[in-house]
Write a sequence for this structure.
């Protein structure tokens, strides 16, 4: 089966800065894939290369088997991209933007599909309003609608829920899930790891331009599984016996312990009692993708 | 081809939405030039015997408007799209590089020629102007607009800020237009400056265009056609290749 996205040995540098170093990965057809990484890790650069907005120094990329540079017209037809920035053309209304977008992809009229997509995104009341007058959330929806005008088999969303209110975020999740269930391959970058955990079957993590992890969400959670115990005590002097459990010291100074079993809570508390320390606050929770993310990012 | 037509339509709609600014205003400006220069100079300057200075001025002003607006259209469209970021929609679209070039070129030529046509039409109300050969008028208007459209596109692609486009316009396009014989015949210049003018391609556009009205020119219209044609084809090739290379558009 053809991969929806095929990324082979991509390198890209800006001056002396290596934005991407030898990145290779495939996204299968019909997959819901998350591309994660801290700011500056190279997510947007990778997406830009896939979309042909940016030219790689070396390596190759293909969308549904069509090479992004040698077969650029075909590759672009297969791909819908929702850019991260809230860009729009201030000369046009929502309807005009979507009609023009359809035309760019060789589709005349397209009124039925425009109707369907915009009502799915809650844009039906804004169709004849100028893009300038829309709120940020509405502009974001128009960007999503634009990317779908040519019913692309592969859709890339670059932080679609950044700066979006909770209601719209949930709405977009539902919409993306729906698209995925209809057979569209979806690639998502996001800072909300909860989003990736809920939606995506597989996760790739970029760190300093390199692919630091690539696995199913389930496997990653399993690999970094365990229980997190977040503690604050009166003295905050760590007994040496607890060193092996300590995962990190959080930004606000709290200890984060990694436990394999709930019974180890007692071990920690016993040790604290032994040094006559007292617990002020305590949170106990299962590891989530955010923990995985930080573990990967901190690994050397 | 739907992609190409859509882009052309979008580009035409873009300037049509602000038609007072993009078409009406330059026509008014040209008429003001005409009013003032003709009032002051009508009986003092003779360029060709049997052609009054006011008549002489009309094609020059019309061509100047064609050139400036063809330049303004391409450059402002690209730089606006770049600054606002919406150029991404075009860069993501499956429209070939040549079609992108052609759509922008045509839109700019149409705007330039529309404004020039408007200037001539508006002038006819006040001034009696005859045409000698309509064919040459159209040829030079279209080729001149095409050359400036290419320069506008190049400026828009090269510039990163609006004021860089303004630099291109004010320090290159304006001087070359004014020094090309819009307001005078180069025969009225000292020998040295006549030679300098002859190395300015803008001179041939205006001289050839004027020939279409009066049947008189400083150089033969065939020579002008050749020069303007070669410049147009060369600049088109450069502009197309710049678009194809992705220079400053695809990083």
């Amino acid at each position: 089966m053809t991969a929806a996205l095929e990324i082979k040995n991509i390198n890209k540098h800006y001056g002396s800065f290596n934005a991407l170093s030898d990145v290779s990965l495939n996204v299968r057809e019909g997959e819901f894939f998350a591309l994660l990484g801290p700011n500056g890790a190279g997510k947007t650069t990778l997406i830009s290369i896939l979309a042909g907005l940016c030219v790689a120094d070396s390596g190759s990329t293909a969308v549904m088997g069509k090479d992004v540079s040698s077969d650029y017209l075909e590759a672009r037809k297969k791909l819908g991209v929702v850019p991260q920035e809230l860009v729009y053309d201030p000369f046009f209304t929502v309807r005009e933007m979507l009609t023009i977008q359809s035309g760019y992809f060789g589709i005349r009229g397209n009124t039925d599909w425009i109707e369907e997509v915009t009502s799915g995104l809650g844009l039906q009341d804004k169709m004849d309003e100028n893009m300038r007058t829309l709120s940020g959330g509405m502009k974001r929806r128009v960007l999503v609608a634009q990317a779908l005008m040519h019913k692309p088999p592969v859709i890339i969303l670059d932080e679609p829920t950044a700066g979006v209110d909770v209601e719209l975020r949930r709405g977009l999740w539902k919409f993306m899930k729906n698209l995925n269930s209809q057979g569209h391959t979806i690639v998502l970058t996001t800072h909300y790891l909860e989003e990736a955990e809920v939606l995506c079957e597989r996760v790739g993590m970029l760190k300093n331009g390199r692919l630091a992890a690539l696995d199913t969400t389930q496997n990653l959670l399993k690999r970094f599984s365990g229980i997190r115990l977040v503690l604050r005590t009166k003295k905050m002097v760590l007994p040496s016996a607890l060193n092996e459990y300590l995962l990190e010291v959080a930004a606000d100074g709290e200890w984060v312990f990694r436990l394999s079993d709930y019974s180890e809570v007692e071990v920690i508390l016993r040790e604290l009692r032994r040094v006559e320390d007292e617990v002020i606050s305590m949170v106990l929770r299962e590891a989530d993708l955010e923990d995985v993310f930080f573990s990967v990012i901190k690994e050397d | 081809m739907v992609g190409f037509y859509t882009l052309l339509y979008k580009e035409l709609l873009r300037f049509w939405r602000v038609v007072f600014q993009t078409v009406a205003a330059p026509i008014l400006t040209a008429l003001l030039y005409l009013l003032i220069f003709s009032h002051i100079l009508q009986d003092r300057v003779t360029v060709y015997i049997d052609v009054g200075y006011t008549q002489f001025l009309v094609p020059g002003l019309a061509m100047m408007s064609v050139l400036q607006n063809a330049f303004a259209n391409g450059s402002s469209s690209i730089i606006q799209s770049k600054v606002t970021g919406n150029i991404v929609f075009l860069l993501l679209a499956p429209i070939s590089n040549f079609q992108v070039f052609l759509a922008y070129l045509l839109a700019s030529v149409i705007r330039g020629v529309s404004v020039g046509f408007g200037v001539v039409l508006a002038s006819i109300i006040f001034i009696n102007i005859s045409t000698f050969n309509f064919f040459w008028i159209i040829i030079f208007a279209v080729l001149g607009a095409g050359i400036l459209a290419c320069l506008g596109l190049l400026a828009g692609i090269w510039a990163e800020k609006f004021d860089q486009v303004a630099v291109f316009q004010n320090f290159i396009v304006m001087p070359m237009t004014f020094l090309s014989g819009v307001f005078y015949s180069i025969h009225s210049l000292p020998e040295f400056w006549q030679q300098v003018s002859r190395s300015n391609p803008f001179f041939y556009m205006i001289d050839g265009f004027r020939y279409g009205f009066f049947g008189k020119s400083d150089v033969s219209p065939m020579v002008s056609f050749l020069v303007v044609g070669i410049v147009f084809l060369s600049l088109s090739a450069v502009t197309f290749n710049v678009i194809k290379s992705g220079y400053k558009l695809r990083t």
About this structure: Chain B is about 75% helix and 0% strand. Chain B has one domain: 2-41+53-245.
